[in-house]
């Protein structure tokens, strides 16, 4: 606002100065042209007009008509050096006598009127002077608004530039500096945005440093946990070899313990890779026949749930399509899915598993009734669902879960190859 006021003031000073200078030199030129006197054609026309209309020095209206008809030529009529008619003033309303000056005598032309002979001074600059003033005024206004608009356009261009730089910041590139120019309110706003940018960069740098520290600590913990797990698996192998064929029941238990230990070690290895980012986001998706990979996991799921007392109904149609998967992660998806069913599904109701081919995906849907807990439903961390969602998204698949009327529906979509 302050800069706009200054801009208007400067434009006004320049425009007024231009008007004064133009007026000075323009008036001078008009008067110089007037000194040359009226051209002979107009003088002859005036004389003829006086004779034809028998005009006297007192016929002001008739004289005024000739001036208008001729094209803005002003006249003054002097009789015995006293002004009796003027195109510029009403002589009858002036009480003081106006005498003819020496300059008027030099320019005067002697004309014979009906009542007397008089001296007439012609002012042909009358119309030119008016046009000069109008032109001067128009040019001054153009100059004034030109300066104001030019200044405003520079400010608007600056605002557009700041807007483009802010869009760059919105895109996440905080290294883009905001242009600081001038000392207007817009400049103050630009400085504030740039300070905010610097503050965000510092905060993000601090957060990144903290994340690196947390990852390093988590990686060290994961690494330390893998070592005893490896030893545990080794001792289980020794125990299995000792009782192999001697105690079938104990051997079965050891097999299960070893299977779970290996699974836990695999999870720790994957966790370590994730924390250190070691090839985590470079995992390649494999093209596998849907029935080959999904059939095995759905079959294991059926067997395990029935062993836990659930009644499972299947409706599967794998078709002949292939899906894109990360083979090691599919087991984690079904493991978390089964874990959720064991925790929250009602065992006295049916678990319905459906598998069918869609346009872009192979869809697996699991529908079960929600268990009614006597002491209230236990609080869920949601980790299982989040893991399933993340793993499917990494394979360009989709995950959704919906609860309605005591029924829980889980939908997995694997992308077709």
Task: Please describe what this structure looks like.
This protein has 417 residues and is an alpha+beta fold. Among the domains are: 72 residues, Orthogonal Bundle (Helix Hairpins); 130 residues, Heat Shock Protein 90, CATH 3.30.565.10. A 5-stranded mixed sheet has the order 6-8-9-11-10. Helix 6 packs antiparallel against helix 7. It starts with a helix and ends with a strand. About 1% of the residues have low confidence.
CATH superfamily of the domain at 286-415: Histidine kinase-like ATPase, C-terminal domain
CATH class of the domain at 286-415: Alpha Beta
What structural class results from the helix and strand content? Answer: alpha+beta
Q: If helices are DSSP runs of H or I spanning 4 or more residues, what is the number of helices?
A: 10
Helix content: 55-70%
Poorly predicted spans: 278-282
Brief overview:
The protein is α+β, with helices and mostly antiparallel strands. It contains 10 helices and 11 strands.
Per-chain topology:
Layout: H1 2-35, H2 40-53, H3 60-70, E1 74-79, E2 82-86, H4 102-107, E3 109-112, E4 117-123, H5 125-170, H6 185-243, H7 248-276, E5 286-289, H8 290-307, E6 311-316, E7 322-325, H9 327-344, E8 350-357, E9 361-369, H10 383-394, E10 398-404, E11 407-415
Parallel strand pairs: 6-8
Antiparallel strand pairs: 1-2, 1-4, 3-4, 5-7, 8-9, 9-11, 10-11
